[in-house]
Amino acid sequence: MTLDTPLRLAAPVLSLLLLAPGLTACTGDEVEDDTSNGDAEPQWPMAESEVEREVDPQLTADETASIADDQLALALDLYHVLREGDLSGKSFSVSSYSISAAFGMLYGGTVGQAREQMESTLHFSLGDERQHVAHNWLDKQLAARNIEGVTDPDFMAEPVVLKTANGVWLDKTQRDGLVPDYLDLLARHYGTGIRIADFQGNAEGERDGINLWVSHRTNELIPELIPDDVITPDTTMVLVNALYLKAPWDQQFTEGATSKAPFTKLDGSTVEVDLMHNPVMSGLYAEGEDFSAFAAPLRGSALEVVFVVPDDFTSFEAALDPSTVANMLSSLEYTVVDTYVPRFELESDVPLTAVLRDDLGMLAPFVDSSSFDDIVPQLGVITDVLHKTVIKVDEKGTEAAAATAIVIGEDGGDYEEPSAVFRADKPFILMIRDAPTQSVLFFGRVLEP
């Protein structure tokens, strides 16, 4: 492959992050309470199964491909609805991993039409027990991405940290109706039990406690997942997934090489941004008919940040579908690239209630109070789906977090000449994915750093 044409990231870009090995691997509900900021989590009473978590879940090759394809399809479904709706004209990202994991727990106790709609809308193509095995398998794969830091004077390296956590809270008035099989499923596949909360008597205090739980598991990147007035005395259950990643670049950018440079916005105007520069960064690069792409590896090389710069961002993103993204990624080839990408922080508060219920057709879980009878009979309906993501990219590496809450209640080495130049100095699309499993963890866009 001849790579002579400079790749400019000065217009809309597709950015893909691939998660790499990390220092601390925590999955399920194993994260210890972090009191470094002086705040200790409440100690909720627990309803737990004696079943242990499956430590070596296995998938067939077809199932492995399916879960990656399904999460990408969900990410794109959400992306298109959001870019045309509530987040039109804005930068944002979503984590289909986090959304799928949170709903996977709920799916385990969902029945009837709600179950069928959940399978269709969320692309749970494996279905039933195999869907839960796949979620557990992916968590175990991500845990293996962690890499310890190195403090040898001759070689210093920051760790790769990747943590996932699942949590479920149930109002104490519902405890006696809990279906034992549901507790077994949560323990076996999601590594969690159920915390017994007092939503009726202390809704605001429980909201604060759940937010603190999320904050500790996202290194305080997401301090308030659930806003005021979402949890009420009518709330019966809250299910949460949290994801946290921090990893250094495999080959870092030098801070002294960062300089102010123009970033071309969608309307053609420019804004000055901090553009990082590494003249000899090894990674995966491709040029298509209407885009250029570069995958910058994080330490360990299993995780990458992939930036995609289309010639025409608007038409390119409108045409994005799973096959387009898959073909784009498969066209990447290893080379050395003279790389320019912006330093940026992207925080997204993504409204998902109406998106899932109205735009994507998953109505039954929001209106049928018998939808979750395999958890607790007449538990209620989904009243809110909350989702937040944070992505930070700088000279040292990448830090990212995602959290999803579903609220249920009543109502409702050697120097080598670079073979290409890559500039991310215009809008770009952004993904974070795990390369070995091909699972998309984040998907979004940056219109202005």
Overview of this protein structure:
This protein is of the alpha+beta class. The protein has 2 domains: 10-19 and 253-343 and 414-446, Alpha-1-antitrypsin, domain 1 (Roll); 25-248 and 346-409, 2-Layer Sandwich (Antithrombin, Chain I, domain 2), CATH 3.30.497.10. It has helices at 61-84, 96-107, 112-121, 128-143, 180-190, 199-217, 313-318, 322-330, 353-359, 364-367; strands at residues 10-18, 25-26, 46-47, 92-94, 150-152, 155-157, 161-171, 194-197, 235-248, 259-264, 270-287, 291-297, 303-310, 333-342, 344-351, 381-393, 397-409, 420-423, 426-434, 439-446. The strands form 3 sheets. Strands 1, 4, 10, 11, 12, 13, 14, 18, 19 and 20 form a 10-stranded mixed β-sheet that branches. Strands 2, 3, 7, 8, 9, 15, 16 and 17 form an 8-stranded mixed β-sheet that branches. A two-stranded antiparallel ribbon has the order 5-6. Strand 11 (270-287) and strand 12 form a beta hairpin. The radius of gyration is 22 Å and the shape is globular. The protein starts with 9 loop residues before the first strand and ends with a strand.
